[in-house]
Amino acid sequence: MRNLYLTARGAIKMNDNNEPVYESSSRCAIDSVYLINEPTHVIYNTSKKRIELDAQKGDILIKFYDSTFETPIVIVDNKEWADNIIKYNEEEQRRAERWAAEKVANEKESTKFNSDIQ
Asked: Is residue 96 a part of any domain in this protein?
């Protein structure tokens, strides 16, 4: 197995054999990523064709921006990626809850300050 070295920003630095490595020319190729929560039949209509895929719980559905991809949606079965999505969503929820709690606290402080002035 050969190694592929990436930078923190995702750029490919080199590989073991100094061979060319395919890299998407578009940094925004992925439009949406969905974690499938139950067995699902996915139907996606483009102007040129209809795509139907079956996804299982834990699969990842990826939709691409660029309509020139032969298949603009794909299903990926990767536990590590799914776990990362779950952890990210949990952290986003914690951030939203902290933000809401801080907003309520700030509003109470502002209300107290305004009543003290009057």
From this structure: yes
Confidence of residue 94 (pLDDT cuts 50, 70, 90): very high
The reported pTM is 0.57
Which amino acid is it at 75?
A: I
Q: Which amino acid is at 21?
A: V
Backbone dihedral angles phi then psi of residue 112, each to the nearest 5 degrees: -65, -45
Higher pLDDT, 1 or 111: 111
Q: How confident is the model over 84-111, as a mean pLDDT?
A: 87
Is pLDDT of 4 > 80?
no
3-state secondary structure at position 82: helix
The answer to whether residue 115 is domain-embedded is yes
Quick count: other Cβ atoms within 10 Å of Cβ 107? 10
Range of the domain at 94: 81-118
Q: Per the structure, how many domains does the chain have?
A: 1
Opening angle at CA 102, ends 97 and 105, nearest 5:
130
Question: Do 106 and 114 form a contact (C-beta atoms < 8 A)?
Answer: no
